[in-house]
Amino acid sequence: MDLSKLNPPQREAVETLQGPLLVLAGAGSGKTRVITHRIVHLLNERPNHIMARNILAVTFTNKAATEMKERLIHMAGPRAQGVLVCTFHAFGAEMLREDIHRLGWPKKFAIADMGDQLSIIRRAMREKRIDDRAFDARKVLTLISKAKNSGEAPQPKPEGMGDDYDLITSMVFADYQLALKAQGSVDFDDLLVLPARLLREHPDLHRKYTARFQYLLVDEFQDTNHAQLDLLKLLAGTARNVCAVGDDDQCIYSWRGAEVRNILDFDKHFPGGKEVRLEQNYRSMQRVLDAANAVIAKNPERKDKRMWTDRKGGPLVKVVACPNDEEEARFIAHEIQKHISLGIPADDIAVLYRTNGQAHPVEEMLREKNIPYEVVGGSEFFDRSEVKDVIAYFKVLANKLDEISLMRIVNVPSRGIGDVTMERLHAHSRAEGVTLWTVMRRADTYDDLPAGAGGKVLEFVEMVERYRDAFAQTPRLSEATHKLLEEIGFREATRAKAVSGTAADKKLKGVDGVLASLEKFEKREGPKASLLTYLNRLSLDTRQEEEEVPGQNKRVTLMSLHASKGLEYRLVFFIGMEEDLMPHGGMQGEAQNLEEERRLCYVGITRAKELLYLTRSTVRVKRGKEVPRTPSRFLEDLPPDAFEVVDMDAPRQGPPDEKEKNFFANLKERFKKPTAGGPGPGTPGRAP
Ligand code: ATP
Ligand code: MG
Questions:
Q1: What is the DSSP string of 463-498?
Q2: How much of the chain, in percent, has pLDDT values that exceed 90?
Q3: Which of 436, 521, 524, 556 could pair covalently with 373 via S-S, beta carbons 3.0-4.6 A apart?
Q4: Which of 40, 282, 352, 600 is the pocket-test mutation for ligand 1 (most atoms within 8 Å of CB)?
Q5: Cα torsion at 271, 273, 274, 278 (round to 10°)?
Q6: Could you say which residues bind ATP here (predicted)?
Q7: Active site residue 32
Q8: Pocket lining: 33 vs ligand 1, CB cutoff 6 Å
Q9: What three-state secondary structure class fits 135?
Q10: Pocket test for ligand 1, best of 220, 252, 283 (most atoms within 8 A of CB)
Q11: Bridge partner list, 14
Q12: Which residue has its alpha carbon closest to ligand 1 atom 11?
């Protein structure tokens, strides 16, 4: 590999192959590049010792994993195929697929989704005589998840300390865990916790996995939580070949349990390692970098990092005030159109926002102007009721023990199996100590069911078992699903229930979406495709709030700041630069969150390579009322010579003028002629 494409500290990081290594450096300094090059170096330098399958690279999202893998294959050829690149959760799922039976789960376990989790919690609350309408099961779920990720079982706080929810959570926690296991499921957090248990409690498995994964690399280390660090430490074994890269200034997931201390205390967790700092920024031009440095410098507790670039000058950051959010969206769409006409590819443009709700006005304007775009995350696709029904069918077919999904579909579409019937069957199942399914199979032997109900239950059981066999025997899942939906009359029933024809179409589109995603899955998996792997794949994907977008590839990207981690675009619109949005509302009072908001702002700014717009509205409509808005405090931190204010009262319409054209022509020239050690031609889209 050509190590000349790296600067000296990057090279040092790439060539340090043994022992713990931390690369702590600012945004755009080439940390992710270090990871990919280090992997290629591992594969190249010691072909006889280090095999692709001995390398595990952990990324923050599935999307980042896919991109890194493609990059590796591009750089090192097909043998990079064997490198495992995935998120911590996907890695955990992989481990559990092989060995979860050692902890007493069935080998074919399912991953519970949030709906399943909430049902279990509500049931557990009811059994403890806690009113599940007075207390929000979601809050309990959040606390359970927090506990699992922090490695401490929920405890009731001492008198006068915690609130009701701490108490409720500690009361239902054990039941929740048992219920999940009883139905052969794990939750998302278990994908981290259970693998760690496997390694801790089973020395033979510890040997197996440490022998297999000898080289560990972790990107975005600043956003790991306790459970992930725990798993990483166990996997590292005695060799401790752990390379972690990250930036404490970009820790933006503390609300989900990320602990910035993991990176700050790296030396405590992996003593005796090496630390490398990178200071040259290759992504952004000077002005963007100046803005980013100035904003983040205001955070009190941070490791100071100086970043410089040899891409001097560059366009000033544009600070734009718009009369309202509609005008803000119109301005953005207009500028995007202009830049596309000037030759910036649509997929090198991003619109970033603090909350997903901000996307809508921009979407509308882009649609109006026929500018192709994709919205990353924030999709409620899998929350649609019909989609949930179809998925629940899959779950029942894949897992006999999944009683929650069974209850969801037993009378969908309506087949005359009512609540009374199911309650009685439940009672029998409890009394006899057997599963609900077992009881349903002999429904005709109970005489306390409503007239005719036993027969209907048997018919349903027969149908499910027939499809269970059918699905087990074919990898052509979408075809089997078509048949199933046909037989149960799912589409007609959906039509009959909908308030209008268009409403029905919308609902059925969701179902078609499921079929399309199944087909894609089948293509990818070939003869290995099974319902269970599909479901597990699905829960990994949706939890990361990502959606694969089919079709056109040159699109403007709309996404939240949180989703923009690690990515880069030539042109970035960072919108809603107002108090209450950036920093996000309700958080100003708490110093710690204000610091995280500042880090988010830093992440947003540092996504831009060339040109950055910071836009805001002076008025927003909230619940039908016009509310005046205050500019974000972060705007005040921008260095005066890094930005200009664009007057929006007189937006220029139409094609760009000569001055603008020349400016961009110059810019293009700059990118064609990189200075020594400087940036290559502006590579489109994503980080390597
Ligand atoms: P972030 O903190 O945002 O994740 P990062 O530190 O991971 O950023 P990269 O995405 O690896 O940074 O790199 C930023 C950009 O700089 C990429 O386009 C990358 O190709 C480029 N780059 C990194 N190192 C070099 C180098 N030595 N020479 C030329 N370009 C480089
Ligand atoms: Mg990166």
A1: HHHHHHHHHHH-S-HHHHHHHHHHHHTHHHHHHHHS
A2: 67
A3: 556
A4: 282
A5: -70
A6: 25-32
A7: yes
A8: yes
A9: coil
A10: 283
A11: none
A12: 30
pTM, two decimal places: 0.84
Tell me the average pLDDT across 22-43.
Answer: 96
Which atom in ligand 1 lies closest to the alpha carbon of residue 250? 2
- State the SS3 of 85-124: EECHHHHHHHHHHHHHHHHCCCCCCEECCHHHHHHHHHHH
- Are the C-beta atoms of 639 and 291 separated by less than 8 Å? yes
Residue 670: pLDDT over 50: no
Whether 219 sits among the annotated catalytic residues: the reply is yes
How much is the pLDDT for 679? 34
- Token output for 412: 């969908």
> Is position 509 annotated in a ligand binding site?
no
Q: How confident is the model at residue 544 (pLDDT cuts 50, 70, 90)?
A: very low
Q: Give the model's pLDDT for residue 114.
A: 86
Q: Could you report the per-residue pLDDT of 411-466, keeping only the tens digit for each?
A: 999 999 999 999 999 999 989 999 999 999 999 999 999 999 999 999 999 999 99
Q: What is the pLDDT of residue 664?
A: 46
Q: Exactly one of 219, 230, 328, 541 is catalytic; which is it?
A: 219
Which of 513, 531, 514 lies closest to 476 in space, CA to CA?
Answer: 531
Q: How far is the CA of 59 from the centre of ligand 2 (A)?
A: 9
3-class secondary-structure state, position 300: coil
Cβ 583 vs Cβ 597: under 8 Å: yes
**pLDDT score, position 592:** 55
pLDDT tens sequence across 370-418: 999 988 875 566 777 888 899 999 999 998 888 889 999 999 999 999 9
Listed in sequence order, the DSSP H helices in 613-675 are 658-672
